[in-house]
Amino acid sequence: MPQTAAASGDAPIVRIRGLKKSFGTHTVLNGIDFDVAPSQVVVVIGPSGSGKSTFLRCCNGLEQPESGILDICGHRLFDQGRMLEERALNALRTEVGMVFQSFNLFPHLSVLENVTLGPRKLRGATKAQAADAAMALLEKVGLAHKAQAMPASLSGGQKQRVAIARALAMRPRVMLFDEPTSALDPELVGEVLQVMKMLASDGMTMVVVTHEMGFAKEVADVVVVMDGGAIVEAGPPQTIFSTPTQARTRAFLQAVL
Ligand code: ADP
Ligand code: MG
User: Fold this and answer.
1) Which of 21, 22, 23 to mutate to test the pocket of ligand 1 (most atoms within 8 A of CB)?
2) How many CB atoms are located within 10 Å of the residue 183 CB?
3) Rounded distance, CA 179 to CA 168, Å?
């Protein structure tokens, strides 16, 4: 059952029905139904190996599902065995921002160049336009003073904030986060979550895989619990955290809280 969309009545940004994905004989996503409404923040939780990363990777075409329907940002990314063709897929990826656990900054480029590269190469921005927009985003994530720094000189929290600014520079319609704070020292987690909270309150549509239950409680509109390649339960954080109906949700929460 798809989780409830926000009461906006707008067309969903993400609409997924019956999504399946296997690696060899191993079924990793076993019929996922999932909706995200504009400006909604969906937090995905669940044990390691439950299929969370594979699910996010399907959403921007990094993995090809086997069956089901996946609509995102007004594109039919996947429909019963057929994937969007390569050119359209590249266009789609500019609308779907992705932030990984491991930052993935370009090590040989400065912070500013990391943030301006996409808009210059893929959006046809001039150097000056891209730099202005990038500086505004770096300001927003608190790193304008690091514009000329190289990634290696930054802390993990700073690297991840640059990665977020870089994704935002493409003006995505939805942001996907795959455990964005899991590689950080504990004292650096807060600064990244703070930036994500700001994005959420700005109205960004977000799907966030995280083990940060405090963030889920505070920011999520909907919490989705995955286990064994399926969504076992979904609902508002108050419900999921205080009165989960599924034994598998209770077991997971007991292990992490
Ligand atoms: P999660 O993010 O919830 O930890 P993943 O989506 O990374 O889960 O993985 C789900 C399952 O799929 C795991 O059993 C993992 O080993 C398997 N898997 C993921 N990617 C691949 C791949 N490229 N090839 C084979 N198996 C994979
Ligand atoms: Mg994962």
Assistant:
1) 23
2) 14
3) 17
